[in-house]
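ok here's YgdI/YgdR family lipoprotein, seq below lol
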Amino acid sequence: MTKTALTATALLFGLLVGCATPSLIVLDDGSEIQTLDTPVYDRQSGFYEFEQPDGKLHRINKDRVQTIKQL
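and the structure came out like this:
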């Protein structure tokens, strides 16, 4: 990677960390999933992507999501 690309990536990461908003995803079966940040919807795949408090990245189909609430 070039120095410019690395700098841009570091800046973007810093902005994302500073804007973290924990969320709660409520699924169609009533179960709840806590996230470290607002889930990101990927239109191409139809899945929400998010990181849980344990640090693991997860994806869930949008059809299973009933609501997303900010904590």
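fwiw The mean pLDDT is 85. kinda neat tbh
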